């Protein structure tokens, strides 16, 4: 599996109170695989496969996603979200000419619903504003909770997208 690029600095120079951000390393792969699998739990629950087949499928899908992110976003910041010494999520951000693009933001199921995602996005939005940029992302059309979160934060639908993903953009 491809390795994370080595970067000393992150795109964010601050984190919400109670959290820290650090660059992802290859040592994080087991956590990231589990995080990915958990993010697809509801979807996979409807698939009548044995557990071993589900796990193999999710491992292969994670490997493909990881390779895609590294090849298409070679200059991105791949960050692990930490609460104390415990990893609770990932935040992958690509700095573009006009925007900071959120490639992925995921939190463990146990850490969702506590305001961490909103807090991370607000920090990212402040960083973008300080750089004279907006923030873009793509949200699954099948995730109404995420739609509501981004709308509360001031994101609007952007042109484009496909049957699975809705592009959204925030501008200060």
From TrEMBL:
Pfam families linked to this entry: Acetyltransf_1
Highest rank taxon of the organism: Bacteria
Region forming the signal peptide: none
Enzyme Commission number(s) of this protein: 2.3.1.-
Domain N-acetyltransferase: 19-172
Gene3D superfamilies assigned: 3.40.630.30
Keywords, alphabetical: Acyltransferase, Transferase
EC primary class: transferase
GO molecular function: acyltransferase activity
Record-given protein name: GNAT family N-acetyltransferase
């Amino acid at each position: 599996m491809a390795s994370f690029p080595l970067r000393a600095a992150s795109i964010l120079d601050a984190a919400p109170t109670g959290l820290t951000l650090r660059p992802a390393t290859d040592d994080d792969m087991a956590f990231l695989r589990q995080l990915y699998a958990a993010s697809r739990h509801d979807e996979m629950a409807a698939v009548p496969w044995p557990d071993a087949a589900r796990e193999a499928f999710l491992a292969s899908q994670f490997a493909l996603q990881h390779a895609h992110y590294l090849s298409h976003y070679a200059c991105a910041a791949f960050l692990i979200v930490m609460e104390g010494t415990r990893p609770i999520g990932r935040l992958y951000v690509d700095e573009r000419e006009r925007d900071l693009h959120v490639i992925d933001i995921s939190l463990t199921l146990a850490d969702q619903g506590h305001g961490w995602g909103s807090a991370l996005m607000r920090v990212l939005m402040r960083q973008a504003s300080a750089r004279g940029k907006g923030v873009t992302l793509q949200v699954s059309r099948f995730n109404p909770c995420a739609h509501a979160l981004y709308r509360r934060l001031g994101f609007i639908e952007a042109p484009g997208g496909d049957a699975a993903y809705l592009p959204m953009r925030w501008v200060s």
